[in-house]
Amino acid sequence: MPELAPLYLTTPIFYANDEPHVGHTYTLVVADTLARFWRARGRRVFVVTGIDEHGDKNAQVAAKHGVTPRAWVDRMSVAWQETWRAVGLSYDHFVRTTAAAHATFVRKVLADLHARGDIYFDQYTGLYCYGCERFYQERELDGGVCPDHRKPPVEIAEENYFFRMEKYQPEILRRLDTHPELVMPDGYRREVLALLREPIGDLCISRPKSRLTWGIDLPFDDRYVTYVWFDALFSYVSALDIAGVPGLWTAAHHLIAKDILKPHAIYWPAMLMAAGMPLYRQLQVHGYWNLAGGKMSKSLGNIIRPRDVDARYGMDALRYYLLRDKSYAGDADFSEEGLVARLNADLANGLGNLASRVLAMQQRYFRGVLQRLAPESVDLALRDAFAQARRDIDAHVGDFAFHRALEALWRALDHANKYVTETAPFALAKDESKLPRVGAVLHELCEALRVTAQLVEPFMPATARKLATYLNFPESRLVELDLAWGSAFATGHETGTPDPLFPRVES
Ligand code: ME8
User: By alpha-carbon position, which residue is closest to atom 31 of ligand 1?
Assistant: First the structure.
């Protein structure tokens, strides 16, 4: 097999103005799932997340709490990392934009761009949305208000520094034509192309200290701090320097939601071109988790916390729901009823029930000891169903269709549940002469559970580990995807006794 190129996966660095909600969790779940999926297939993956600590938003919330911005972001840095640890979402590096090495990196880029004439000083009047931390053009507003925060932007007039972004507009357009995979899915690429049909203007990259002191000082004028987006986007590159893996930049895939498409698809390529750095490989844009039809958002205050969902239903149930009930690119409404319905139908009845029936029969009839296989055509059809699931999962994850990947695995699990009914080991076991067939059927089903554990691991790692424990299959072998059916367990292997994987939730 050809060696797979390394993958550098990023989530946005989230504003440190509040703790994480389920929307941020979604982007991290996707990153974690992709990392697990590709690592099991031999690919090197490096995941970076973090927090965006400068800017007006963070300064305003710190003031509201009566603490310095520094004290506030220190507190948030602990809260975010603690949340991800508690819910089992892992990454390789956590960005803090207040890190000295990051500030040095940004100041160096600014100094270079200034020296080369890509940054100039000018008077400016514009419409600013504090929620988005950016200026809006009149035509981007929705009935005069910011389309995301539903508030009218504030008119700001001041002298500032500008980055000659418009100079790079033709080159960005050309890249989107020659590299259509740069912004995915294609609908979002077309949105970017539409924005690029009009002049994009230059980008205001400074804030006067008379208005905001919380930021990275401009290297060439200490009356100003750097605009938060100019600082934040470069963290994708500085993170790799800080982590000691600078070579991974050319493998960069950014996961973001559509709220920050413009900064990532227009500002960021222009900034990279100006800085003489290669562009990222791909921007993978997802839709929103809404609550009662409106975007879940820290600024709007309509949020659900991942730790609360974890405490009530378990993190794997949340991961399953997030990946199964929304297509990556589209929007979906988050609802507790929806989550409970999935938990009961797919997890408790579909997977949990299969595991507990199979492992209980294995104990009852054979004290856990696996019996010899003697495949009949129904058994071969079961094997085919899981082989098909593997192929479908690989194809769908490649297309970011996580909902389809899970659907494919559950088709195989449905097949397995029907197989239990059809082969009826519980009925055959009443006749002693049929015990060899019962043993063979249960062995087939233990293999089906082993393959399920392996295939489900990227999506629901805790569930995979539990299944492995119940099967007495080493966790370290969950990545051995190409293990032949029938060869996972040695002669005389004993399976364990399961607890229910997913207790049903009564609403
Ligand atoms: O924009 N549904 O930070 P942010 C799905 N600091 N995803 C959601 C979501 C929702 N309802 N709400 C948030 C910023 N997200 C900047 C980024 S990057 C250099 C700087 C996720 O805290 C999604 O990934 O507003 C979205 O793009 C991101 O959080 C916005 O996070």
Answer: 14
Cα–Cα dist 198/139, whole Å: 11
Rounded mean pLDDT, 385-406: 98
What is the spatial distance between Cα 315 and Cα 25, in angstroms, rounded to a whole number?
11
State the chain's mean pLDDT as an integer.
96
Active site residues: 21, 24, 129, 132, 146, 149, 295, 298
Ligand 1 contact via 14 beta carbon (within 6 Å):
yes
Q: Which two tokens stand for residue 298?
A: 């820290």
Q: pTM (2 decimals)?
A: 0.96
Token pair 């192309």: residue: 193
The closest of 155, 162, 157 to 136, measured between CA atoms, is 155
* Ramachandran sector of residue 144 (left: φ over 0; alpha: ψ -120 to 50; beta: rest): left
Give, as one character, the DSSP assignment of residue 478. G
319 has a pLDDT exceeding 70: yes
pLDDT above 90 coverage of the chain, percent: 92
**Beta carbons of 120 and 344 less than 8 angstroms apart:** no
CA atoms of 94 and 80, how far apart (whole Å): 10
**173-229 residue pLDDT tens:** 999 999 999 999 999 999 999 999 999 999 999 999 998 999 999 999 999 999 999
Where do the DSSP E strands lie in 140-280?
154-163, 183-184, 203-204, 206-208, 217-218, 221-226, 252-257
Do residues 319 and 460 lie in contact, with contact meaning Cβ atoms separated by under 8 Å? Answer: yes
Q: What separation in Å is there between the alpha carbon of 267 and the centre of ligand 1?
A: 16
d(CA 166, CA 150): 28
* Residue to probe by mutation, ligand 1, list 34, 259, 297, most atoms within 8 Å of CB: 259
pLDDT of res. 2: 72
Report H helices in 343-487. Answer: 353-366, 377-398, 402-423, 425-428, 435-456, 461-471
pLDDT for 446 equals 98
C-alpha to C-alpha distance for 211 and 204, rounded to whole angstroms: 15
Residue nearest to atom 10 of ligand 1 (CA): 23
Residue nearest to atom 29 of ligand 1 (CA): 24
pLDDT beyond 70 at 507 = no
The CA distance from 242 to 238, in Å, is 6
CA nearest neighbour of 197 among 150, 259, 137, 257: 137
Kindly give the distance from the C-alpha atom of residue 132 to the centroid of ligand 1, in angstroms, as a whole number: 10
As a whole number of angstroms, the distance between CA 397 and CA 376 comes to 32
pLDDT tens digits, one per residue of 154-178: 999 999 999 999 999 999 999 999 9
Alpha carbons 315 and 309: distance in angstroms, whole number: 7
Ligand 1 contact via 260 beta carbon (within 6 Å): yes
Is the beta carbon of 256 within 6 A of some atom in ligand 1? yes
